[in-house]
Protein backbone atom coordinates (compact mmCIF):
# COMPACT_ATOMS: atom_id res chain seq x y z
CA UNK A 1 0.00 0.00 0.00
CA UNK A 2 1.09 3.53 -0.59
CA UNK A 3 -0.24 6.70 0.88
CA UNK A 4 -0.77 10.03 -0.74
CA UNK A 5 -1.51 12.44 2.09
CA UNK A 6 -4.01 15.18 1.40
CA UNK A 7 -5.31 17.88 3.71
CA UNK A 8 -8.14 16.84 6.01
CA UNK A 9 -10.80 19.25 7.29
CA UNK A 10 -10.35 20.18 10.92
CA UNK A 11 -12.83 18.45 13.21
CA UNK A 12 -13.56 21.65 15.10
CA UNK A 13 -15.47 24.85 14.64
CA UNK A 14 -12.42 26.91 15.56
CA UNK A 15 -11.06 28.46 12.38
CA UNK A 16 -7.28 28.37 11.73
CA UNK A 17 -5.34 31.46 10.80
CA UNK A 18 -4.84 32.10 7.11
CA UNK A 19 -2.04 33.77 5.20
CA UNK A 20 -2.72 37.09 3.56
CA UNK A 21 -1.08 37.99 0.24
CA UNK A 22 2.04 40.08 0.42
CA UNK A 23 1.27 43.74 -0.16
CA UNK A 24 3.12 45.51 -3.00
CA UNK A 25 5.78 47.99 -2.04
CA UNK A 26 4.82 51.64 -1.87
CA UNK A 27 6.01 53.25 -5.18
CA UNK A 28 6.98 56.35 -3.25
CA UNK A 29 9.44 54.26 -1.26
CA UNK A 30 11.12 52.03 -3.86
CA UNK A 31 14.14 51.38 -1.64
CA UNK A 32 12.12 50.21 1.37
CA UNK A 33 14.33 47.36 2.71
CA UNK A 34 11.72 45.42 4.67
CA UNK A 35 9.34 42.64 3.60
CA UNK A 36 5.85 42.25 5.00
CA UNK A 37 5.83 39.51 7.63
CA UNK A 38 3.36 36.73 6.75
CA UNK A 39 0.50 36.12 9.17
CA UNK A 40 0.98 32.41 8.62
CA UNK A 41 3.12 30.19 6.38
CA UNK A 42 1.91 26.78 5.24
CA UNK A 43 4.69 24.38 6.33
CA UNK A 44 7.06 22.48 4.08
CA UNK A 45 6.33 18.78 4.58
CA UNK A 46 8.49 15.70 4.04
CA UNK A 47 7.79 12.83 1.66
CA UNK A 48 8.05 9.33 3.13
CA UNK A 49 10.67 7.08 1.56
CA UNK A 50 11.98 3.64 2.48
CA UNK A 51 15.66 4.64 2.13
CA UNK A 52 17.45 7.95 2.66
CA UNK A 53 18.82 9.77 -0.40
CA UNK A 54 22.59 9.89 -0.63
CA UNK A 55 25.00 12.50 -1.94
CA UNK A 56 26.71 15.75 -0.93
CA UNK A 57 23.63 17.77 -1.94
CA UNK A 58 21.72 16.39 1.09
CA UNK A 59 21.96 17.17 4.79
CA UNK A 60 20.29 15.16 7.53
CA UNK A 61 18.52 15.79 10.84
CA UNK A 62 16.83 13.75 13.53
CA UNK A 63 13.10 13.26 12.98
CA UNK A 64 11.55 14.90 16.04
CA UNK A 65 8.39 13.22 17.36
CA UNK A 66 6.08 15.99 18.55
CA UNK A 67 3.85 18.83 17.31
CA UNK A 68 4.93 20.92 14.32
CA UNK A 69 4.92 24.60 15.29
CA UNK A 70 5.98 27.97 13.91
CA UNK A 71 7.13 30.72 16.26
CA UNK A 72 6.33 34.25 15.04
CA UNK A 73 8.32 36.94 16.83
CA UNK A 74 7.38 40.55 16.09
CA UNK A 75 9.15 43.12 18.27
CA UNK A 76 8.45 41.37 21.54
CA UNK A 77 5.08 39.90 20.56
CA UNK A 78 5.10 36.12 20.14
CA UNK A 79 2.60 33.80 18.47
CA UNK A 80 3.11 30.04 18.36
CA UNK A 81 1.03 28.43 15.62
CA UNK A 82 0.31 24.75 15.05
CA UNK A 83 0.55 23.10 11.65
CA UNK A 84 -3.18 23.70 11.24
CA UNK A 85 -2.81 27.43 11.98
CA UNK A 86 -4.15 27.47 15.54
CA UNK A 87 -2.64 29.77 18.15
CA UNK A 88 -1.11 27.68 20.93
CA UNK A 89 1.06 30.40 22.46
CA UNK A 90 -0.43 29.92 25.91
CA UNK A 91 0.28 26.20 25.79
CA UNK A 92 4.05 26.65 25.39
CA UNK A 93 5.03 29.34 27.91
CA UNK A 94 8.70 28.33 28.05
CA UNK A 95 9.02 28.52 24.27
CA UNK A 96 7.29 31.91 24.26
CA UNK A 97 9.69 33.26 26.89
CA UNK A 98 12.70 31.85 25.03
CA UNK A 99 11.57 33.52 21.79
CA UNK A 100 11.35 36.91 23.51
CA UNK A 101 14.94 36.59 24.70
CA UNK A 102 16.49 35.74 21.33
CA UNK A 103 17.75 39.25 20.65
CA UNK A 104 16.13 39.75 17.25
CA UNK A 105 13.19 42.02 16.44
CA UNK A 106 11.33 39.87 13.91
CA UNK A 107 11.55 36.21 12.94
CA UNK A 108 9.50 33.17 11.91
CA UNK A 109 11.08 29.96 13.17
CA UNK A 110 9.95 26.54 11.96
CA UNK A 111 10.36 23.54 14.22
CA UNK A 112 8.85 20.87 16.44
CA UNK A 113 7.57 21.10 20.02
CA UNK A 114 8.84 18.06 21.91
CA UNK A 115 9.30 16.60 25.37
CA UNK A 116 12.47 14.53 25.84
CA UNK A 117 12.69 11.35 27.89
CA UNK A 118 15.51 10.46 30.30
CA UNK A 119 17.70 9.38 27.38
CA UNK A 120 17.17 12.68 25.57
CA UNK A 121 14.87 11.18 22.95
CA UNK A 122 11.59 12.83 21.89
CA UNK A 123 8.54 11.12 23.39
CA UNK A 124 5.15 11.94 21.87
CA UNK A 125 3.15 10.47 24.74
CA UNK A 126 5.01 12.56 27.33
CA UNK A 127 4.39 15.70 25.27
CA UNK A 128 0.68 15.00 24.99
CA UNK A 129 0.34 14.21 28.69
CA UNK A 130 2.08 17.48 29.56
CA UNK A 131 -0.59 19.32 27.54
CA UNK A 132 -3.46 17.57 29.31
CA UNK A 133 -4.12 14.97 26.61
CA UNK A 134 -6.15 15.35 23.46
CA UNK A 135 -8.36 18.44 23.64
CA UNK A 136 -6.52 19.29 26.84
CA UNK A 137 -6.03 22.95 27.70
CA UNK A 138 -3.01 22.75 29.97
CA UNK A 139 0.15 24.75 29.31
CA UNK A 140 3.20 22.50 29.07
CA UNK A 141 6.09 23.45 31.31
CA UNK A 142 8.22 20.64 29.85
CA UNK A 143 7.91 21.30 26.12
CA UNK A 144 10.80 22.77 24.17
CA UNK A 145 11.21 23.64 20.50
CA UNK A 146 13.74 21.96 18.24
CA UNK A 147 14.18 24.59 15.52
CA UNK A 148 15.16 23.45 12.03
CA UNK A 149 14.36 26.34 9.68
CA UNK A 150 14.12 30.13 9.56
CA UNK A 151 11.59 31.72 7.20
CA UNK A 152 11.71 35.39 8.16
CA UNK A 153 14.60 37.17 9.82
CA UNK A 154 15.11 40.72 10.98
CA UNK A 155 12.63 42.28 8.57
CA UNK A 156 13.37 40.03 5.59
CA UNK A 157 11.45 37.12 4.07
CA UNK A 158 14.18 34.56 3.37
CA UNK A 159 12.10 31.65 2.09
CA UNK A 160 13.57 32.06 -1.40
CA UNK A 161 17.09 31.58 -0.08
CA UNK A 162 18.60 28.13 -0.33
CA UNK A 163 18.41 25.96 2.78
CA UNK A 164 22.13 26.23 3.54
CA UNK A 165 21.81 30.04 3.79
CA UNK A 166 18.69 29.87 5.94
CA UNK A 167 20.50 27.43 8.22
CA UNK A 168 23.42 29.86 8.50
CA UNK A 169 21.12 32.58 9.86
CA UNK A 170 19.29 30.10 12.11
CA UNK A 171 22.56 28.84 13.60
CA UNK A 172 23.69 32.43 14.17
CA UNK A 173 20.42 33.21 15.95
CA UNK A 174 20.44 30.13 18.19
CA UNK A 175 24.17 29.77 18.82
CA UNK A 176 24.70 28.82 22.45
CA UNK A 177 20.97 28.52 23.22
CA UNK A 178 20.28 25.74 25.74
CA UNK A 179 16.81 26.78 26.88
CA UNK A 180 13.37 26.05 25.48
CA UNK A 181 14.35 26.83 21.85
CA UNK A 182 17.27 24.78 20.59
CA UNK A 183 18.86 24.14 17.23
CA UNK A 184 18.08 20.87 15.48
CA UNK A 185 21.60 20.02 14.42
CA UNK A 186 22.31 19.27 10.76
CA UNK A 187 24.37 16.14 10.20
CA UNK A 188 26.76 15.68 7.28
CA UNK A 189 27.73 12.23 6.07
CA UNK A 190 26.35 9.12 4.44
CA UNK A 191 22.55 9.10 4.86
CA UNK A 192 22.43 5.32 5.13
CA UNK A 193 24.94 5.26 7.99
CA UNK A 194 23.20 8.14 9.77
CA UNK A 195 19.87 6.32 9.44
CA UNK A 196 21.35 3.10 10.87
CA UNK A 197 22.78 4.92 13.89
CA UNK A 198 19.47 6.74 14.48
CA UNK A 199 17.60 3.43 14.56
CA UNK A 200 20.19 1.88 16.88
CA UNK A 201 19.66 4.75 19.32
CA UNK A 202 15.90 4.21 19.41
CA UNK A 203 14.97 7.31 17.41
CA UNK A 204 11.95 7.44 15.11
CA UNK A 205 14.02 8.18 12.01
CA UNK A 206 15.75 10.96 10.08
CA UNK A 207 14.87 13.79 7.71
CA UNK A 208 16.95 14.44 4.57
CA UNK A 209 16.85 17.96 3.11
CA UNK A 210 18.25 19.25 -0.17
CA UNK A 211 20.85 21.91 0.59
CA UNK A 212 19.90 24.16 -2.34
CA UNK A 213 16.13 24.01 -1.89
CA UNK A 214 14.03 27.07 -1.18
CA UNK A 215 11.25 26.84 1.39
CA UNK A 216 8.19 25.59 -0.49
CA UNK A 217 4.92 24.90 1.31
CA UNK A 218 3.50 21.41 0.85
CA UNK A 219 4.95 17.95 0.26
CA UNK A 220 7.09 18.46 -2.85
CA UNK A 221 10.15 16.26 -2.29
CA UNK A 222 12.70 18.82 -1.09
CA UNK A 223 12.49 17.09 2.29
CA UNK A 224 12.47 13.29 2.70
CA UNK A 225 11.66 11.38 5.88
CA UNK A 226 12.78 7.83 6.56
CA UNK A 227 11.39 6.02 9.59
CA UNK A 228 13.04 3.30 11.64
CA UNK A 229 9.61 2.11 12.74
CA UNK A 230 6.50 2.97 10.78
CA UNK A 231 4.29 5.49 12.56
CA UNK A 232 1.11 6.93 11.09
CA UNK A 233 -2.24 8.40 12.09
CA UNK A 234 -5.43 6.31 11.91
CA UNK A 235 -9.08 6.92 12.80
CA UNK A 236 -10.48 5.06 15.81
CA UNK A 237 -13.79 3.39 14.88
CA UNK A 238 -14.41 1.26 17.94
CA UNK A 239 -12.94 -0.83 20.75
CA UNK A 240 -13.10 -4.34 22.14
CA UNK A 241 -13.92 -4.35 25.87
CA UNK A 242 -11.88 -6.44 28.28
CA UNK A 243 -12.34 -7.25 31.95
CA UNK A 244 -8.58 -7.47 32.57
CA UNK A 245 -7.06 -4.74 30.36
CA UNK A 246 -6.35 -1.17 31.47
CA UNK A 247 -9.58 0.85 31.69
CA UNK A 248 -11.38 -2.11 30.12
CA UNK A 249 -9.95 -1.51 26.64
CA UNK A 250 -8.84 -4.77 25.09
CA UNK A 251 -7.94 -3.14 21.77
CA UNK A 252 -8.84 -0.20 19.56
CA UNK A 253 -10.27 -0.79 16.08
CA UNK A 254 -8.58 1.39 13.46
CA UNK A 255 -9.39 2.63 9.98
CA UNK A 256 -7.59 4.42 7.15
CA UNK A 257 -9.01 6.76 4.54
CA UNK A 258 -9.90 5.59 1.04
CA UNK A 259 -11.59 8.28 -0.97
CA UNK A 260 -14.55 9.39 1.13
CA UNK A 261 -14.80 6.12 3.07
CA UNK A 262 -13.10 4.56 6.06
CA UNK A 263 -11.45 1.16 5.60
CA UNK A 264 -10.79 -1.14 8.57
CA UNK A 265 -7.04 -1.85 8.93
CA UNK A 266 -6.86 -3.87 12.13
CA UNK A 267 -6.61 -3.24 15.85
CA UNK A 268 -4.07 -2.22 18.46
CA UNK A 269 -3.95 -3.66 21.97
CA UNK A 270 -0.56 -2.54 23.33
CA UNK A 271 1.04 0.75 24.29
CA UNK A 272 -1.61 1.90 26.78
CA UNK A 273 -0.72 3.30 30.21
CA UNK A 274 -2.97 3.64 33.24
CA UNK A 275 -3.35 7.40 32.73
CA UNK A 276 -3.94 7.49 28.97
CA UNK A 277 -6.21 4.43 29.03
CA UNK A 278 -8.58 5.99 31.58
CA UNK A 279 -8.78 9.24 29.63
CA UNK A 280 -9.25 7.36 26.37
CA UNK A 281 -12.06 5.19 27.77
CA UNK A 282 -13.92 8.26 29.04
CA UNK A 283 -13.63 9.87 25.60
CA UNK A 284 -14.74 6.72 23.78
CA UNK A 285 -17.81 6.32 25.96
CA UNK A 286 -18.93 9.85 25.07
CA UNK A 287 -18.88 9.20 21.31
CA UNK A 288 -20.49 5.76 21.05
CA UNK A 289 -22.21 4.94 17.77
CA UNK A 290 -25.08 2.55 17.09
CA UNK A 291 -23.70 1.36 13.75
CA UNK A 292 -20.19 0.49 12.60
CA UNK A 293 -18.60 3.25 10.48
CA UNK A 294 -16.62 0.64 8.50
CA UNK A 295 -17.13 -2.75 6.92
CA UNK A 296 -15.87 -5.14 9.56
CA UNK A 297 -15.01 -8.81 9.12
CA UNK A 298 -14.09 -9.68 12.71
CA UNK A 299 -16.19 -10.94 15.66
CA UNK A 300 -19.03 -8.50 16.38
CA UNK A 301 -20.39 -9.78 19.66
CA UNK A 302 -18.67 -7.36 22.01
CA UNK A 303 -17.36 -4.54 19.79
CA UNK A 304 -18.29 -1.02 20.93
CA UNK A 305 -18.50 1.25 17.90
CA UNK A 306 -17.66 4.96 18.11
CA UNK A 307 -18.00 7.99 15.88
CA UNK A 308 -14.93 8.35 13.62
CA UNK A 309 -13.53 11.53 15.18
CA UNK A 310 -10.49 10.37 17.18
CA UNK A 311 -7.11 10.28 15.42
CA UNK A 312 -4.62 7.85 16.99
CA UNK A 313 -0.89 7.80 16.32
CA UNK A 314 0.15 4.16 15.83
CA UNK A 315 3.55 2.50 15.51
CA UNK A 316 3.66 -0.70 13.47
CA UNK A 317 6.18 -2.96 11.77
CA UNK A 318 4.50 -3.83 8.48
CA UNK A 319 1.25 -4.63 6.68
CA UNK A 320 -0.25 -8.10 6.28
CA UNK A 321 -1.17 -9.42 2.84
CA UNK A 322 -4.82 -8.58 3.50
CA UNK A 323 -4.18 -4.96 4.44
CA UNK A 324 -3.96 -5.09 8.23
CA UNK A 325 -1.36 -3.55 10.56
CA UNK A 326 1.26 -5.90 12.03
CA UNK A 327 2.69 -5.50 15.55
CA UNK A 328 0.83 -2.24 16.15
CA UNK A 329 1.41 -0.16 19.29
CA UNK A 330 -0.61 2.82 20.53
CA UNK A 331 1.33 6.09 20.98
CA UNK A 332 -1.48 8.52 21.78
CA UNK A 333 -4.27 10.61 20.28
CA UNK A 334 -3.53 13.45 17.92
CA UNK A 335 -5.14 16.76 18.72
CA UNK A 336 -7.41 17.94 15.89
CA UNK A 337 -5.68 21.32 15.94
CA UNK A 338 -2.43 19.59 14.99
CA UNK A 339 -4.09 18.89 11.62
CA UNK A 340 -2.61 15.40 11.40
CA UNK A 341 -3.20 13.63 8.10
CA UNK A 342 -4.95 10.27 8.42
CA UNK A 343 -3.25 7.44 6.53
CA UNK A 344 -4.64 7.18 3.00
CA UNK A 345 -5.02 4.06 0.89
CA UNK A 346 -4.89 4.57 -2.87
UniProtKB/TrEMBL annotation:
Pfam families: DNA_ligase_A_C, DNA_ligase_A_M. One of its GO terms (biological process) is DNA recombination. Residues 1-32 are annotated as: Disordered. It catalyses: ATP + (deoxyribonucleotide)n-3'-hydroxyl + 5'-phospho-(deoxyribonucleotide)m = (deoxyribonucleotide)n+m + AMP + diphosphate. Keywords: Ligase, Plasmid. It comes from the Bacteria. GO terms for molecular function: ATP binding; DNA ligase (ATP) activity. The keyword Nucleotide-binding does not apply. The keyword Ligase applies. Residues 136-227 form the ATP-dependent DNA ligase family profile domain. It is an enzyme of class 6 (ligase). Its EC number is 6.5.1.1. Belongs to the ATP-dependent DNA ligase family. This is DNA ligase (ATP). The lineage of its organism: Bacteria, Pseudomonadati, Pseudomonadota, Alphaproteobacteria, Hyphomicrobiales.
Amino acid sequence: MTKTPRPKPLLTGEEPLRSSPRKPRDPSQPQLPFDLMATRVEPCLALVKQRPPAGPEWLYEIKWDGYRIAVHLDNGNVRILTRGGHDWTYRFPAIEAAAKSLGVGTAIIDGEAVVLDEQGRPHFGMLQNSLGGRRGKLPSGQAMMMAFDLLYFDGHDIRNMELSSRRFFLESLLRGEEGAIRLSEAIDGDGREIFTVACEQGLEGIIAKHRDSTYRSGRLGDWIKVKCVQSDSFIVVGYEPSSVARAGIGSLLLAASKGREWVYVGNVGTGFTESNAESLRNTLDRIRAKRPPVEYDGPRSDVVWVQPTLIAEIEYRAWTHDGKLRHASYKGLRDVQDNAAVYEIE
